[in-house]
Amino acid sequence: MEETIKSIVLGLCSGGIYALLAISYVVIYKSTRVFPFSQAAVLIIGAYIMWYCLIAWHLPYGLDLSSLALVEQSWGCSSKGHSCVPW
After folding, report:
1. Around Cβ 71, how many Cβ atoms within 10 Å?
2. Could you tell me which of 7, 18, 38, 85 has the fewest CB atoms within 10 Å of its CB?
3. pTM value?
């Protein structure tokens, strides 16, 4: 019974991440008419940073999330001028 509940929760979490990614694709495409191919790269880099902080450095979960947010925000701000403009 415990494994079933764990599987359901993990499935809902994975589905929620896929749903948020799909919504972001739609919002970006509808507003700019450019398909955002970089979204998957940002998601993969974020997952790798989170994994590295949790497994390699053994940091607490809250510190992992804050370091992930800091890295992703700084990467987003630094690459803002290099993004594709449709006009």
Report:
1. 15
2. 85
3. 0.55
